[in-house]
Amino acid sequence: ELKVEQNPLFLSMQEGKNYTIYCNYSTTSDRLYWYRQDPGKSLESLFVLLSNGAVKQEGRLMASLDTKARLSTLHITAAVHDLSATYFCAVDIWNTGTASKLTFGTGTRLQVTL
Amino acid sequence: SAVISQKPSRDICQRGTSLTIQCQVDSQVTMMFWYRQQPGQSLTLIATANQGSEATYESGFVIDKFPISRPNLTFSTLTVSNMSPEDSSIYLCSVDLQGLTQYFGPGTRLLVL
Description:
A: mainly beta, 11 strands
């Protein structure tokens, strides 16, 4: 059974600081996703990482994937209050001809304070 | 990307009743997925719905409790049957576009009393 773990579960950080959220998974996977969820809202797709060594950046967020270590990171640079949300990683075991399905991590609730 | 709508957006139901949730997509998709997000928790896949075939359920979820329909390539329904307070959750549908990523609907917030 695929397990996906995130840490930390909760992160309180000051504006302007940097921090990294970690996502570990237990089996080989072809792709990894990062999503953002605001309170009472649905999920917003942030990044899709498709290969070992993949790195993607959007604004103050940068995601990377190390398939050998089964680890993805979401790095936050110079945090701002608008980044406060819950962040989920999700792992996809893609098998041609069968349904692709996501196993989600536990989520990291990020709170950025002034 | 895809535009996904769900109905109802929220509901309060009595235990023992059933609720059918609708999911509509603005483009034709092969796969549609139903997830549950219990309060303060992560998302768990309930089932995968392909048009023209029976839905595939994940461990811990059964068709009698969560019957799913997929009558065409843009629409699906999930029914939560014989509800109990433990079924209080957010139910989300998602679609897989071109095998690149999954997009999620706005969710249906269900409270069972």
